[in-house]
Amino acid sequence: MIRELTTFEPYWAFIDEINRDPSFGEPMLQTKEQIEKNLISAIQSPGQVPLGVFSDDEMTGLFVFLVVEDEQYIEMLVGLSRSPAAYEEIADWLQAHYPGYQVDFVFNPKNPAILKMLANRGAAVDSEQFKMVLTEEPPAVDTTGIEPLSPAYADQYVALHATDLYWTGERILKAPDMFRVFLAVDGGTVVGYIDVTKNNEENEPFDFLVREDCRRRGWGRKLLYKAIEANRPKRMMLIVDVGNNPAIALYRSMGFRDSPEPQSQAATLHLE
């Protein structure tokens, strides 16, 4: 049975137990800021749907989803359960309430219950990722050619931007209160960009791309350094694919170090 929750008070023991488990802990609940933003605030935040899965009145799963009805888009902010049946039940509930929507998941890659549900439903599962945190002062970089996003370059930015994620260039342009965007501009042509969150105490590059034919010319380093400088005095972290050795080498050279927090994995499911 699934119930929409109006409080988390009776369930903190369940939340803490699952979140401390190395195989089932929630990557999106690893800091106080994440717990406040993704969990606690969900009770009163428009668009966030907190749900409990119960068997004989005993909780077997706790979930929070962000639902953007205008975009037919859902993001799982919290998924805490060891039960394969709970994941199947929550997926059935989403299918019944939001047919035609896209659902994005970020989860612990050691969690066999969610992996089984995603496989059963044909979800597209991305590579495993891990968190890096800026802990050292980066070496100074000449940022000539790096410019903040402006109307003059908006069309080029959108054309270059990755489209296989929810935050496309068009959506970023509509959310200037959430992101800083810097562009690599070579002779009037946009050859790269970095989208960086700006409202958190620990911000992150959300998307980061240099055109393939312009790589190995220092543009990535310039963009990242500009983002770090603009983010001060706040902290910065990033998420990187486990096997992306060139990116990992760049981040380490700029002062980022591996975090001990659990690895994460992302997946996308299209509800029929």
Written description of the protein model:
This protein is of the alpha+beta class. It folds into 2 domains: 2-128 and 264-270, Aminopeptidase; 137-254, Aminopeptidase (3-Layer(aba) Sandwich). Helix content is 27%, strand content 32%. The protein has helices at 12-20, 32-39, 84-97, 112-120, 154-160, 169-173, 219-231, 245-253; strands at residues 2-4, 48-55, 58-68, 73-80, 102-107, 124-125, 129-134, 146-148, 179-186, 189-197, 202-203, 205-210, 235-241, 256-258, 265-270. Strand 3 and strand 4 form a beta hairpin. It is globular, with a radius of gyration of 20 Å. The mean pLDDT is 96.
CATH class category label of the largest domain:
Alpha Beta
Low-confidence stretches: none
Q: Specify the CATH homologous superfamily of the largest domain.
A: Gcn5-related N-acetyltransferase (GNAT)
CATH architecture of the largest domain: 3-Layer(aba) Sandwich
The main pleated sheet reads as: 7 strands, mixed
Q: What is the β-strand count?
A: 15
Q: By helix and strand content, what is the structural category? A: alpha+beta
Number of helices: 8
Rounded to an integer, what's the Rg over CA atoms?
Answer: 20 Å
**What is the residue-mean pLDDT, rounded to a whole number?**
96
Integer tally of domains: 2
The end-to-end distance, rounded to whole angstroms, is: 22 Å
Specify the overall morphology: globular
Q: How much helical structure, as a percent, in the residues?
A: 25-40%
Strand arrangement, largest sheet?
1-2-3-4-5-15-6
SSE string: EHHEEEHEHEEEHHEEEEHEHEE
- Tell me the strand percentage band: 25-35%
Query: What name does CATH use for the topology of the largest domain?
Result: Aminopeptidase
